[in-house]
Backbone:
């Protein structure tokens, strides 16, 4: 039998159904593994004390009725910006240290309703301000592939939890790159849904017009199963779409990609980029052709413009969203904000100030519209655009020091799609210096089904979804 | 030197919707135990999101339509950012450059039109309570009011006296009540008034404007009137002594002390806030279609001015029409009897307005007994009047000197002599005829 920490959702369900193991054994296995590896990697900030009891309950349910829920008994790692009722939620910030939520986020509520077990809450950049998990107020998470390197971020803890196999599945959230980039650096699968596909209710807000919660998993199949559960209109989030949710599982397992049209974005193969990364993307394009898809080169706006647009919009929203941490409630005063938090509040406050609003925020929104229109045009002819997630593999611990724009430079290739609110899958496409490299497969808004089909087919026909040996 | 006050008014109205503006907590907060009507949204907890209350938006647009505004096809919410301990999120959700309604007006009884700049939707803040607990001075926050829907009605600076301002405010109050969207109880803070005042002064040196002053949070029409009058005088005096004119940087905010009857400085422009408005990303913009607006328009009740006009159309004197229009039961009674041939509607209205008769089952009977026609026999009455005129030459002399109101004396005497059986109208006709012979 395969070790329990190496199983996908479908494999866990098969094992539970056959009685190969119990949910209690599964959860206990993960908890032991966490106990062994977490002190070194700093992935979980807190653990669910009731996880084993919940597992026992699941065993009883399965005994009586079999498996009736899509995520029954599946152990999850949850990014610490999702409010979990009765479980401390900090968004890795000292200002929320010890904060005990009085309500459950819509995403975790849906997971729990679907039978999931939350193992614990994972480390992240403080308030999701970063792409390294190095700005966490509780120390950086280390990359399971190389402990001298960063996991990426801001969902670095959730990505590392999957790479280190400390949970069957994880939840992250992406504002621009925060799912796909750590997924790429940790060599796992990440799926950023369309903005408005998954509810933001109960997620500590970063860039409200961009934030998109999504699954971080061992493969596309798991991501599709989870997305089917967490997607949909939420009466508590006015920006969620009423569009009906597909059963994304139906989009899995296609034999080939005949009839699909894929665009390789020229501008995303940056001059400054490691040639070996470019080669991997070109190989991926070749693979898509082998699978029957048409792949053509296209041209998009230089992604450097997205950095400016993204920085202004996100910082503006951040400065507003963090105003509620005014020291009156939540137990800690404003001096508990860290340097990066303060830098973002200052910049955002500036760009929204009288006299600067037109020059920054308004102009950024205008360019955002251009980027949206460009993508819309591309998607008239193509099902997906592909490119690297990140210009290179995971960077070394300490790389963010004295680099206020670190995240923006690392996320240059994922910011355009985030600004446009698109859906995008990040999947491993090879290795450089024994470190994983990620491929992004991006589609139009609400084309999750098609993107899952393409990414799943690619993943089943390649062998890059690997895990580091930590034993 | 001539002086013309320029007065604009901002009026905040608390809507009486079931739930708050962006969450499902009860909006009925007055007198409730502190912090018993709260949830993650109106407490501004991390991750909570606002979901707009459609009933409140309907009410806001109804107010706009009643004030002759046009409804914007594209509208949105914005964040107005400032720091105050009763502001849970660190920003208020309001509307900045695309309010639901714009460009309306209200017509004063003089016929003067007062422009309405905008009618927009926003949310109320929590309430601070400064108190002493166990000998320690503390400030407590009650979030029951946090997120209660508010509509802000902003006039153009078209009002030129405190009387006009008061009439404008009363009209707004009547309209809000007639629409049924708010109780607009001033004492409960359900309607709050903020006049902005300055004065246009013309003297031998030319044309001058005094610096703008906004007077905050007044909760009675009389206080608003007093505050405006005080400001007009203060500003003129100030201009005469200092010569300081309005500039882009010298608008100030003042409070009104209703006991001392003075306004006092609260904030100067240098300290004024930059609200850093930007579109609320948590709420998608609104596309408002004509059918929706048309339906709301059709749902509006008859508004006070229209009701008055209708009564005047029935022959009712305007001063009585205004009293009746404000009283639902009187209005109903008058309208029910309008086609009754035995009833003279202007007379009925005058009796009701003067409280000589009251609404009830016996209204028609009461009316008829009060209006029984007296003796109209002119020949008989003329004799009586002639005798009275003869007996009172002094009074007649006064009449000839121009004191025409002594006519009433003769009518009264004649009524007395007939023990009230004479018809007063016939009598006054005879008196007038005889005196003018």
Residues:
């Amino acid at each position: 039998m395969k070790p329990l920490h190496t199983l996908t959702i479908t494999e866990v369900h098969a094992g539970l159904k056959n009685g190969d193991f119990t949910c209690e054994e599964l959860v206990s296995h993960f908890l032991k593994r966490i106990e062994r590896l977490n002190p070194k990697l700093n992935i979980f900030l807190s653990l669910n004390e009731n996880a084993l009891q919940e597992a026992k309950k699941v065993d009883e349910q399965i005994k009586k009725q079999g498996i009736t829920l899509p995520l029954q008994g599946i152990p999850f790692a949850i990014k610490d910006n999702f409010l979990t009722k009765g479980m401390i939620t900090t968004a890795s910030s000292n200002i929320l240290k010890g904060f005990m939520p009085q309500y459950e986020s819509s995403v975790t509520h849906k997971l729990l309703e679907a039978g999931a077990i939350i193992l614990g809450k994972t480390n992240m950049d403080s308030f999701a301000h970063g792409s390294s998990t190095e700005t966490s107020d509780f120390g950086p998470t280390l990359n399971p592939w190389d402990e001298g390197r960063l996991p990426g971020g801001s969902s670095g803890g959730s990505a590392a939890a999957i790479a280190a196999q400390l949970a069957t599945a994880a939840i992250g959230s992406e504002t621009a790159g925060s799912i796909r980039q750590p997924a790429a650096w940790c060599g796992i699968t990440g799926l950023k849904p369309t903005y408005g596909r998954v509810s933001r209710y109960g997620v500590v807000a970063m860039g409200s017009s961009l934030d998109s919660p999504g699954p971080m998993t061992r493969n596309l199949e798991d991501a599709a199963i989870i997305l089917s559960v967490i997607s949909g209109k939420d009466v508590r989030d006015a920006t969620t779409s009423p569009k009906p949710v597909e059963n994304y599982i139906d989009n899995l397992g296609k034999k080939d990609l005949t009839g699909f049209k894929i665009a390789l974005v020229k501008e995303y193969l940056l001059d400054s980029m490691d040639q070996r990364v470019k080669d991997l993307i070109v190989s991926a394009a070749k693979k898509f052709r082998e699978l029957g898809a048409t792949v053509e080169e296209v041209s998009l706006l230089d992604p450097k413009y997205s950095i400016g647009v993204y920085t202004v919009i996100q910082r503006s929203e951040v400065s507003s969203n963090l105003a509620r941490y005014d020291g009156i409630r939540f137990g800690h005063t404003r001096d508990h904000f860290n340097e990066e938090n303060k830098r973002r509040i200052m910049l955002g406050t500036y760009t929204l100030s009288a006299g600067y609003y037109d020059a920054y925020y308004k102009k950024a929104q205008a360019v955002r519209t251009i980027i949206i229109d460009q993508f819309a045009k591309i998607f008239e002819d193509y099902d997906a655009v592909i490119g690297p997630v990140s210009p290179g593999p995971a960077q070394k611990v300490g790389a963010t020091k004295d680099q206020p724009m670190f995240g923006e430079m690392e996320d240059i290739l994922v910011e355009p799609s985030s600004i446009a609110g698109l859906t995008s899958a990040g999947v491993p496409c090879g290795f450089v210096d024994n470190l994983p490299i990620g491929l992004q497969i991006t589609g139009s808004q609400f084309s999750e089904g098609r993107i899952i089909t393409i990414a799943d087919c690619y993943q089943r026909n390649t062998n890059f979804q690997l895990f580091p040996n930590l034993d | 030197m001539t002086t013309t006050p320029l007065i604009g008014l901002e009026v905040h109205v608390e809507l009486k919707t079931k739930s708050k503006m962006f969450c499902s907590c009860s909006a009925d907060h007055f007198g409730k135990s502190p912090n018993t009507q709260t949830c993650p949204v109106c407490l501004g907890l991390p991750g909570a999101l606002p979901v707009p209350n459609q009933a409140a938006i309907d009410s806001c647009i109804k107010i706009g339509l009643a004030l002759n505004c046009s409804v914007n096809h594209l509208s949105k919410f914005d964040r107005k950012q400032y720091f105050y301990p009763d502001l849970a999120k660190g920003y208020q959700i309001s509307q900045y450059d695309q309010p639901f309604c714009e460009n309306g007006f209200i017509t004063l009884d003089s016929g003067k039109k007062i422009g309405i700049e905008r009618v927009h939707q926003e949310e109320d803040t929590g309430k601070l309570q400064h108190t002493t607990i166990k000998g320690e001075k503390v400030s407590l926050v009650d979030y029951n009011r946090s997120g209660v829907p508010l509509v802000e009605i902003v006039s153009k600076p078209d009002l030129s006296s405190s009387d006009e301002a008061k009439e404008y405010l009363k009209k707004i109050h009547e309209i809000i009540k007639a629409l049924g969207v708010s109780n607009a109880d001033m004492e409960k803070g359900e309607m709050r008034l903020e006049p902005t005042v300055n004065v246009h002064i013309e003297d031998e040196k030319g044309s001058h404007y005094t610096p703008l002053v906004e007077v905050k949070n007044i909760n009675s029409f009389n206080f608003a009137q007093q505050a405006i009058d005080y400001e007009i005088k203060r500003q003129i005096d100030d201009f005469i002594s200092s010569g300081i004119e309005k500039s882009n940087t010298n608008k100030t905010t003042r409070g009104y002390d209703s006991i001392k009857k003075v306004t006092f400085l609260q904030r100067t422009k240098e300290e004024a806030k930059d609200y850093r408005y930007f579109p609320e990303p948590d709420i998608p913009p609104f596309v408002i279609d004509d059918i929706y607006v048309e339906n709301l328009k059709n749902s509006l009740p008859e508004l006070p001015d229209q009701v008055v006009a209708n009564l005047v159309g029935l022959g009712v004197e305007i001063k009585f029409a205004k009293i009746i229009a404000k009283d639902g039961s009187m209005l109903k009674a008058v309208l029910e009897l309008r086609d009754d041939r035995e009833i003279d509607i202007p007379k009925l209205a005058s009796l009701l307005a003067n409280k000589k008769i009251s609404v009830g089952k016996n209204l028609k009977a009461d009316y008829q007994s009060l209006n029984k026609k007296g003796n109209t026999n002119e020949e008989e009455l003329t004799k009586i009047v002639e005798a009275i005129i003869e007996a009172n030459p002094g009074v007649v002399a006064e009449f000839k000197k121009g004191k025409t109101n002594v006519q009433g004396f003769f009518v009264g005497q004649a009524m007395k002599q007939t023990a009230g059986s004479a018809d007063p109208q016939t009598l006054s006709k005879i008196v007038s005829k005889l005196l003018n012979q």
